[in-house]
Amino acid sequence: MHGRGAHGSMPHTLVDPVVLASSIVLRLQAIVSREVEPGHFAVVTGGSLTAGAKANIIPDSAELLLNIRTYDPAVRERVIASIKRIVRGKCAAAGAPNAPEFEYYDQYPLTSNDSETTDTVTRAFTEHFGAEVVYEATRVTASEDFSLIPESFGVAYTYWTVGSIEPERYRDALARGAVGQEIPANHSPQFAPLEEPTLLTATRAHIVVALAYLAPAGEVSG
User: Fold this and answer.
1) Which residue has the higher pLDDT, 154 or 181?
2) pLDDT tens, position by position, 79-104
3) CA dist 219 → 41, 58, 66, 79, 152 (Å)
4) Is the omega angle on the peptide bond into residue 216 within 30 degrees of 0, that is, cis?
5) Torsion angle of C-alpha atoms 14, 20, 21, 27, degrees rounded to 10
6) What is the C-alpha to C-alpha distance for residues 27 and 66, in angstroms, rounded to an integer?
7) What is the C-alpha end-to-end distance of the chain, expressed in Å?
8) Nearest 5 degrees, angle CA 81-CA 87-CA 90?
9) Distance (Å, rounded) from C-alpha 212 to C-alpha 1?
């Protein structure tokens, strides 16, 4: 967002991009609650707002980094259109000397697991590891570029994760139905899966799935 910089003692002579960006951040929070149909998933997160370097100098621009997540491409387009409308409107209302600029980066497609492949993998995991340690996850809001490769070749796929925590902590979270919420995920400062048996389990998982497809029935052993 572009403003008009000046000394902090002369706010009447400028267009403050810090105030402008702050008002945009607050207004963007209404997109999900007021513009996305109830029952449809969407997230709009302002992860970074950068402007200026000194307390007594009002800068001439501000950069706002946004993160968007949806399960429906149509909802995504609606959210992006809303963001553009709001940012442009706020800039115009503030008297910004130049139109805002938009840049897109780190865009990933929806990862949608094939049901038949998922059933095969789940069955193989359950038979090898036991049902008590195979957790069927709900929809995950994390982004992933994994699906780019199989989709490029028209190959059915399923995406799984492997983790390891103390047995007592897992049983406690499982009893409360909070396995997916209380175990620290990546990017969390508390993220620290046990090195073992996580690495060994992950290696076995790949082998078990490969054998489920490559080995004749009845020839897969522990």
Assistant:
1) 154
2) 999 999 999 999 999 999 999 999 99
3) 43, 71, 51, 51, 32
4) no
5) 180
6) 13
7) 59
8) 135
9) 54
As a whole number of angstroms, the distance between CA 13 and CA 66 comes to 29
Residue with the bigger pLDDT between 52 and 178: it is 52
**Greatest distance between any 2 Cα atoms in the chain:** 81
Distance from chain centroid for Cα 93: 32
- Name residue 177's amino acid: G
- Check: CB of residue 150 under 8 Å from CB of residue 141: no
Quick one: tokens of 194?
A: 């046990």
Whether 130 and 119 have beta carbons less than 8 Å apart is answered as no
pLDDT at residue 180, rounded to an integer: 57
Tokens of 125: 């995991």
Name beta bridge partners: 48. 65
What's the pLDDT tens digit per position in 15-65? Answer: 999 999 999 999 999 999 999 999 999 999 999 999 999 999 999 999 999
Enter the pTM of the model: 0.78
Spatial neighbors of 180 by CB under 8 A, at least 6 apart, are: 137, 138
Tokens of 44: 């709009």
Q: Which long-range contacts (CB under 8 A, 24 or more apart) does 188-194 make?
A: 193/163, 193/164, 193/165, 194/164, 194/165, 194/166
**Side-chain-facing half-sphere of 13: CA atoms under 13 Å:** 9
> Rounded to the nearest 5°, which phi and psi values hold at 115?
-65, -40
